[in-house]
Amino acid sequence: MNFNFKSSYVIIVVIALIVILLFGGRMFMIIDPGERGVIFRPYTSGLDKENIYTEGFHVIAPWNDMKIYNVREQQREETMDVLDKNGLSISMDVTVRFNPHYDKIGFLHEKFGENFINVLVIPEVRSSVRQVAGRYTAEEIYSTKRAEVEQSIISETRATLSENFIDMKALLIRSINLPTQIKNAIESKLQQEQEALAYEFRLKREESEAERRRIEAEGIANYNRIINESLTDKILKQRGIEATQDLAESPNSKVVVIGSGKDGLPLILGGN
Q: What is the pLDDT of residues 213-227, one digit of tens each?
């Protein structure tokens, strides 16, 4: 009896070891930080999109399959040729940063699979860049509306990726390259526009200075006119008499001849 029990126990242990050796790689799963897992049960319920496995140690049945996704922020750089509004070819270097929605990787796996970056992210970025670029001229993309173009690409790409379980963190246009002839023509035009604006500014500044001087001159002229109109002969004589009295009362010696000055005002002949 004891022998049979021990034999059964040994057989069970041996079978368990064989199972572990054969299927241990499929049964014991370790999900690292920054990763999430989704399980596929081929013989029962299929893909479990609702239950997401987080980091740590997990045991699953060997006939099931665990798909592990990197949910850290990732970056891709793309160089692409696009056409502007007038059909001119433009080369653009674009960088996109993104990560899958943590709790939606089951849906992402079902719709796009593990190769979702090449199947979804890159094509959508390229599509948005081309669509937006086609609404602007080369000059607008290169200079006058570059920020608007970039913002439109960001908005449209983020909306599309979000609908497909991707969180786009940023999209940057690193460079825009035009044919040399077109680039030189645009830069020359921009330089001429800047020079015209600078000349217009100088004209306005000079006009403002001329207006200021005119107003100042009018003010001085009006002041002199008012003073001249207020200085009557009687007032002038009164001011002369007052000045003479002040001089007569001063300690300095002088000779004052009454009635010998202009208009009958006192005449001061000298003093110390």
A: 778 777 777 766 776
Report helix angle 146-163 to 122-133, nearest 10. Answer: 140
Structure tokens at 9: 């126990």
d(CA 8, CA 149): 74
Strands 35-41 and 65-70: antiparallel
Among 51-55, 123-127, 236-240, the minimum mean pLDDT is found in 236-240
| DSSP secondary structure, 156-181, as one string | HHHHHHHHTTEEEEEEEEEEEE--HH
Query: Any bridge partners for residue 97, and if so which?
Result: 75, 170
Distance CA 69, CA 105 (A): 7
d(CA 193, CA 205): 18
Adjacency order of strands within the sheet including 166-177: 74-83, 89-100, 166-177
pLDDT digits (tens, 9 = 90+) for 143-177: 788 889 999 999 999 999 999 999 999 999 888 88
- List alpha helices for the chain, DSSP H: 2-27, 105-111, 116, 122-133, 138-139, 146-163, 180-230, 233-249
